[in-house]
Amino acid sequence: MTRPILALLVLAISIPPLYAQSSVYTDRSGYATGTQDGRGVNTYTDQYGNTTGWVGGKYQNTYSDGYGGTTGTVGNKRINTYDDGYGNTRGTIGRDRINLHTDPSGVTTGTVGQRRLNCYTRSRTTACY
User: Fold this and answer.
1) How far does the chain reach from its first CA to its final CA, in angstroms?
2) Domain range for 98
3) Contact between residue 99 and residue 110 where contact means Cβ atoms under 8 Å apart
4) What CA–CA distance (Å, rounded) separates 113 from 25?
5) CA–CA separation, 12 vs 112, rounded Å?
6) Are 13 and 94 in contact (CB under 8 A)?
7) What is the sign of the dihedral through the CA atoms of 62, 3, 37 and 105?
8) How many other β-carbons are positioned within 10 Å of the β-carbon of residue 63?
9) What is the biggest distance separating any 2 CA atoms in the chain, rounded to whole angstroms?
10) Separation of alpha carbons 56 and 60, rounded Å
């Protein structure tokens, strides 16, 4: 569950509110590739949940504590999140508050800052609209 949530968070802070369309594919080895608002996404998440790479020209580097917490940077913004294990993710990216819920079918809804986020994951592909 951690990999799709991190992808969603990064997409959420990078997507302008009027162009919230993206598609990111994550393979079994942890590489995520795709597009976000016409810009490239290329990241790697290791077996421990640590992620590095580029999203829309911004370097991303996050670390998982192994207990649902994630910290790091996306571009020049600090990221601190916590996943409670029941599909709820809360925290901050820069000054934006994060409040997301992912149901068992892979649908994620919620807010990042004042932006509404609606995404779904099917067969390792995450799409937002």
Assistant:
1) 20
2) 2-128
3) yes
4) 25
5) 7
6) yes
7) negative
8) 15
9) 35
10) 10
Q: How many domains does the chain have?
A: 1
Question: Residues near 26 by Cβ (< 8 Å), separated by ≥ 6?
Answer: 3, 4, 7, 32, 45, 124, 125, 126
- AA identity, residue 128: C
| Full-model pTM | 0.74
Quote the tokens at residue 120.
Answer: 């779904």
Can you spell out the DSSP letters for the chain? -HHHHHHHHHHHHHS-GGG--EEEEE-TTSEEEEEETTEEEEEEE-TTS-EEEEETTEEEEEEE-SSSEEEEEETTEEEEEEE-SSSEEEEEETTEEEEEEE-TTSEEEEEETTEEEEEEEETTEEEE-
Tens digits of per-residue pLDDT, 37-68?
788 999 999 999 899 999 888 999 999 999 99
Give the pLDDT of residue 18. Answer: 40
- Kindly state the tokens that stand for 70: 């994630």
Q: How far is CA 25 from CA 21, 59, 125, in A?
A: 14, 18, 4
